[in-house]
Design goal:
The chain is mainly alpha-helical. Helices cover about 45% and strands about 5% of the residues. It has helices at about 10-25, 55-65, 70-85, 85-90, 130-135, 140-150, 155-160, 160-170; strands spanning about 100, 105, 115-120. GO terms for molecular function: DNA binding.
């Protein structure tokens, strides 16, 4: 038999959860077997969480100035980094969702099904993680970040705390404005 492709610990755990759920359904409500063959707590453990990476302001400025990268990519990275949407939310944006006269942005469809509107900070660069890191490092509250990113709990925001502390200790400040 061929070897299975390598799987991450998270994928192995997810598969194990599905198997456990399937076996539990075989017990009840299906009543196909008397008991679940998989004991509670058998799930593989997840490894330690990876540190979140973020782009520093000088790297951001170099990326935005690098003319070998198409302008539309640079503008997209700038928007993602400064406004904090998911890439899928940015990809779904339509002209009517952006009001440049008032500097407002509307995200009607998103992962959490929680429509959001906010004032745009028209500046530029990279990732959602960078947005959160820079915001926290510069004194923005978790509530402020969650309002813009759509996070419903602080768990995901907390994953960038260490990077934000490093960012603040280095005194890197805000990203340069795109305007």
């Amino acid at each position: 038999m061929r070897a299975l492709p390598p799987m991450s610990p998270a994928l192995r755990r997810h598969i194990a959860q599905l198997l456990h759920r399937l076996m539990a359904m075989a017990v009840f409500p299906c009543r196909l077997v008397a008991m679940n063959a998989l004991p509670r707590g058998f799930l593989p453990k997840l490894g330690p969480a990876k540190a979140k990476a973020c782009l520093y302001p000088d790297g951001d400025a170099r990326l935005l100035a690098y003319s070998a990268i198409p302008l539309w990519w640079r503008v997209l990275w700038g928007f993602l980094n400064r406004e904090g949407p998911r890439i899928s939310e940015a990809a779904r944006l339509q002209v009517q969702d952006v009001d440049l006269d008032r500097g407002a942005l509307r995200l009607e469809k998103n992962k959490t099904n929680d429509p959001r509107a906010r004032v745009l900070q028209v500046r530029a660069h990279d990732t959602r993680s960078t947005f959160i890191t820079v915001a926290l490092a510069n004194g923005r509250s978790e509530t402020w970040v969650a309002d813009r990113t759509g996070h419903r709990s602080s768990v995901m925001i907390q994953r960038t705390r260490r990077a934000a502390r490093t960012f603040a200790e280095l005194g890197l400040g805000e990203l340069a404005s795109l305007a």
